[in-house]
Amino acid sequence: MKALFSSGLLLFIAGTAAAQTRPASVTFLNPATVAPAKGYSHAAQVDLGSSTMLIISGQVALDAQGAVVGPGNVGQQAEQAFANLKAIVEAAGGTMRDVVKLSYFLLDVSQLPAVRTVRDRYINTSTPPASTAVQVSKLFRDELLLEIEATAIIPKKQSTR
Questions:
Q1: pLDDT in tens, the chain (161 residues)
Q2: pTM, full prediction
Q3: Where are the domains of the chain?
Q4: N or C, fewer C-beta in 10 Å, the chain?
Q5: Which overall architecture, per CATH, does domain 24-155 show?
């Protein structure tokens, strides 16, 4: 029995090591429709075979030229952040219905209802994505009130023969 367990453990370890040596197919995306990324990518696309996982960096209220939209107004800032998320998802060939996870980072979590009002114009409210909301003490620029990151699973188009 001990030999059988040891053999199974060795096979598991060998299989795990082999899986880790095969790099996943990952590409990075920086659409021109959102503010230029400086020192990071807006999204990482991971090929999952029949679909693509899109991991989107936190989006804030910066327009395509990098200017802050809606200083002091969480609703306007949420609108810009969601517009940025939508632009990135669409650049990867998806729609906002493909978003499966949203994470919110807010200076004031009591503003979450205003953010949800905007969110509901972008997502499928009958099956909303999983989400997390966190209150933070500061974001990378003083004018920013929130940051929103997302993950999407985008089905690949089936070829018709």
A1: 555 445 554 444 445 444 455 456 999 999 999 999 999 999 999 999 999 999 999 999 999 999 999 999 999 999 999 999 999 999 999 999 999 999 999 999 999 999 999 999 999 999 999 999 999 999 999 999 999 999 999 999 865 54
A2: 0.83
A3: 24-155
A4: C
A5: 2-Layer Sandwich (3.30)
